[in-house]
Amino acid sequence: MAKALEGVKILDFTHVQSGPTCTQLLAWFGADVIKVERPGEGDITRGQLRDIPDADSLYFTMLNHNKRSITLDTKNPAGKAILEELVRTCDVMVENFAPGVLDRMGFSWERIQEINPRIIVASVKGFGPGPYEDCKVYENVAQCAGGAASTTGFDDGPPLVTGAQIGDSGTGLHLALGIVTALYQRTHTGRGQKVLAAMQDAVLNLCRVKLRDQQRLAHGPLKEYPQYPNGEFGDTVPRAGNASGGGQPGWILKCKGWETDPNAYIYFITQAPVWAKICDVIGKPEWVTDPDYATPVARLPRLKEIFATVEEWTMTKTKFEAMEILNQHDIPCGPILSMKELAEDQSLRETGTVVEVDHPKRGKYLSVGNPIKLSDSPTEVTRSPLLGEHTDEILSEVLGFDPQRIAELRESGALGATRRLAAE
Ligand code: CAO
Predict the structure, then answer these.
(1) What is the pLDDT averaged over residues 334-351?
(2) 17 Cβ closer than 6 Å to some ligand 1 atom
(3) What gap in Å lies between CA 242 and CA 226, rounded to an integer?
(4) Active site residue 402
């Protein structure tokens, strides 16, 4: 079956996490993603957090499925000339180097446009134009600078970063949307354009509800926050612990076994339309008519006490038992699932959200597959490339170079030493 982005050629000049997550998605949608890597080392994540000696790390393999790899020394004149050919041939260039790197390499936006006015140049940077535009940025820096850390954690503790990679993978998602939008616009204009996703902007976009709350503060306390009614509100959005970000109060509650299992918890939402059912389930039918508990407004100053009472009930059930009972009554809730539980979840395997991939050097490993499902463009996850595995193939198939030219290029040092799958 033809894939959604079949025929689109991506020059993937990305590394680490933010850029690779973007190009991996495009590859899953059918684009031909050509990953250009520095000879010898390649993407730095190949060697980072290694669990198996000499094999590409899970960090790399889980972010670079369905791509081809070519090694090029772009500081070598012949290597630079090949990069120029790739710019001429590809539809999109994606990069997430530190600010100024592409310019120093000789590939300013103006120069790229001269080579190929149809190309879309998509970049992840830490910050957009402004005081920090020249800074190098990693995940947690973006979480801190984008408002996530200041609003995550408990009121009496320090700011916290979250395990979700909203700075890297979150920005990669934003960039992917920018790219397909620019590709669509190109069908009318015939022109390429620059696409920028700054990590600070992407994190702030995901923290939209907190900027909402910042403005609500001017009109009084945030009544759904745990600080209400007894705590103090300053002039900035406080950390809200596990309170829900929406209008339906929620909290994380202990379940049976919490003393020994760090994940024996459930997220419980006291959604207003099912309040009567909640009261029945937890054995408090009198709360349905009691004016202190009957309405959402009356409940707000009593949320702590209400959740403590609900918890007395959840502690008598495992998180899965509680989930089953609550779902029978349409009461929104969610078990706190560990990575082990997610890895073993059969339904996630069946949908391809968790996939097992085979790799010639590391054997079988689990990965997260494509979380976006297209009915007419199904995803088949294939393993990440070895460093430079497709160098010759790309030079001949994509750029049309003959074997002699490839041999000369190899002599020149432009390609570095290629590791061949067959030789390993
Ligand atoms: N051949 C020769 N040189 C190459 C090359 C190739 N194929 N590919 C890259 N290089 C060189 C570049 O030319 C550059 O050299 P110069 O600094 O001499 O110009 C260098 O490698 C790469 O530079 P970098 O500054 O991007 O890399 P870094 O490891 O120092 O910084 C990072 C990494 C992520 C902090 C930085 O790239 C960055 O801020 N990127 C933007 C934000 C981002 O994506 N962050 C998320 C990373 S995931 O947590």
Answers:
(1) 98
(2) yes
(3) 9
(4) no
